[in-house]
Design a protein that fits this description.
Elements lengths: L4 E14 L7 H4 L8 E4 L4 E6 L8 E11 L10 H11 L5 E4 L4 E6 L3 H10 L3 E3 L2
Parallel strand pairs: 1-7
Antiparallel strand pairs: 1-3, 1-4, 2-3, 4-6, 5-6
Helix pairs in contact: 2-3
Length: 131
């Protein structure tokens, strides 16, 4: 497996759910300071990953996540990145929430598991920055 450079984002993140017909709240469309925001709509829900401070008031949410971003851009032909990260974290007993963008992959782990996650990733040979 290719060794990755991974950045730990400094803020607390949340995973939130709104009704499928909800309008995307304005603060999520232009977040400050380069924050990671992901909005996904299906016929069943509007799912949001965002800094905890931006969670919409009417959303059901799970807070206390930290985001780890693989430095990219990553070619679409690369295989096994999320598989490797998830298996390394699973072996350390760390649950994750993953998402991908055009350029890279992101993994969220609970704040209480961050130290274990960083240790596991470093032991697997990855460079982890920002902690």
């Amino acid at each position: 497996m290719r060794r990755l450079a991974i950045d730990v984002r400094p803020e607390e993140y949340a995973v939130a759910r709104l009704d499928a017909s909800a309008v995307v709240p304005e603060p999520l469309l232009e977040p400050a300071d380069g924050a990671l925001v992901s909005v996904t709509r299906t016929d069943a829900e509007l799912s949001v990953v965002c800094p905890a401070a931006l969670v919409p008031a009417k959303a059901r949410s799970e807070r206390g996540w930290r985001a780890l971003t693989v430095r990219g851009p990553l070619a679409f032909t690369l295989t096994g990145i999320i598989a490797a990260l998830s298996s390394e974290l699973a072996a350390a007993g760390v649950a994750l929430f993953s998402l991908s963008t055009f350029d890279t992959d992101h993994v969220l782990v609970k704040h209480t598991d961050l130290d274990r996650a960083v240790t596991a990733l470093r032991l697997a040979g990855h460079e982890v920055h920002g902690v």
